[in-house]
Amino acid sequence: MQNPRQIAFLALREVHRRGAFADAALDRAFSNSQLNDLDRRLVTELVYGSVRRMRSIDFIIDKLATKKSSQQPPELRTILHLGLYQLEYLNQIPPSAAVNTTVQLAKENGFSGLSSFVNGLLRQYTRLTPPTPPYQGGAKSLPNSPQQTETKTTSNSPPYQGGAGGV
User: CA-CA distance, 27 to 134, in Å (whole number)?
Assistant: First the structure.
């Protein structure tokens, strides 16, 4: 069975290296794979989401790592984007699974020596962020993030019921 995160990594690498459009990179990645529908949806979400939230994820890397995101090796940065995107925006994936698969992705792509850095950064992120259901460990955003308003709107008020004040 093929690894959906590896396929997402390959598509994102093409986007970042060659300036390919995400949809074209995904089409090429899918043409060489035999993923089931669920895995194809995960790959699509990871690629589009990582591209869409690149600046927000770079901000998180800049806050947590000694080196800025722009100073990280490009492929390592892509791997970190995949892991942080899962932790930040995909709360249906358990944080431990997101961390472990991202560390494994780093090892499989020539970053065995930096796998402890990947593990440490992602685990630090899970410790610093407020828990969110259903896994009580995924996060929504770091404090002082300039993108907080764009990432989520959370409210304790009941959902809109319609009407105009009971009139």
Answer: 32
